[in-house]
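Supplementary Note 2. Why include the ligand at all?

Several targets in our set were suspected to adopt different conformations when bound, so apo predictions alone were not considered sufficient. For every target with a known small-molecule partner we therefore ran a joint prediction. The input for EPU is given below.
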Amino acid sequence: MSADLDLSGFTTLRLGGPATLFAECPTTQVLIDVVRLLDAARIPTLVLAGGSNLVIGDKGFDGVVVRVSNTTVSLDAGRVRVDAGAAWDEVVAQTVAAELGGLECLSGIPGSAGATPVQNVGAYGVEIGSMIERVQLLDRVTGEVRWVGPSELGLGYRTSVLKHSSDALVLATELALHTDGLSNPIRYRELASALGTDEGGRVPAAAARETVLELRRGKGMVLDPDDHDTWSAGSFFTNPVVSDESLPAVLSAIDAKLGDVSVPQYPAENGTKFSAGWLIERAGFSKGYPGENAAARLSTKHTLAVTNRGTATAEGLLTLARTVRDGVEDAFGVRLEPEPVMVNCSI
Ligand code: EPU
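The joint prediction is reproduced in token form.
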């Protein structure tokens, strides 16, 4: 346990402010014991793992920061069990090296394994939810530890019942992977063409991992301490789904502003999904907005990443995010929703 730590070193945005107390939990049992004790004493607790999908306000956190650092990974044929604190990309690398397929499209995603079910992490046409066998949770209301299956997790696009709730803490996840060493079917057009395969084809998992890493690097979506474009929380907004009723108005707003353009849009469960990055760019916020000397800017490689150039404050970064959200809404009538979890701050 240590006191008065600056949390900025623990988030990929390098924002955080101070924390009163910090409890490092290197094993699952320590994690369970510490969280149970804090909960019984009703002490405010912030559970922090990879810090990659988190915006912490400048005032920091007045309570105990619990750092999830249990990191055991065990592979048993296609069944993989990962502790919540394991670094996600190392888990992917380990499975690919063991010729297990399934996780390759989720390569290069920063953060911890325990965060992946929480927001049903996805990339390049694959969501972690499709490979989850069960998740071990600490129920913070009853103090019980139990395993739950994917049907109990309410998994959706970048969400689950675990997001925006502190009722349960992920301790470990069990995944079922392909033992033939081949990837999941490649569903993302950009990835399929980079791999020279048809959409729906399967390729060696290692080849898919390398190509995904290359694509992500090109978009500034692989952490690199020397590259401020990667000092982000990944995509800051989710891709919006427009309902059937609102669709004609949105399309006519796009047409009025941009004329006859091809609009990236995909059928989704409750309507039509648009690309937030595309809308941001077409609303007038180009890559690198608002310009070179700003402490908080959009990434120069991808408009969906809001980045800290080194000296940003959380409030400065959120002001930029608000400007972008409101500008997109004014231009096209589409309200973007933030993807990261906000702690002691809001957009
Ligand atoms: N686009 C632009 N300008 C940009 C970036 C993108 O116009 O600066 C347009 C392009 O038309 C492009 C389209 O947006 O074709 C889609 O862009 P991209 O392929 O980069 O995907 P995305 O929808 O922006 C999503 C996920 C990413 C994931 C990639 C690849 C969300 C919110 N984001 O991004 O996930 O890596 O697909 O699968 O769903 C994350 O969640 O943090 C994340 C990085």
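The longest strand covers residues 168-176. Residues 123-124, 188, 190, 219, 221, 234-235, 238-239, 264, 275, 277-278, 281, 287, 302-304, 339 surround EPU (CB under 6 Å). Comparable summaries for the other entries are listed in the accompanying table.
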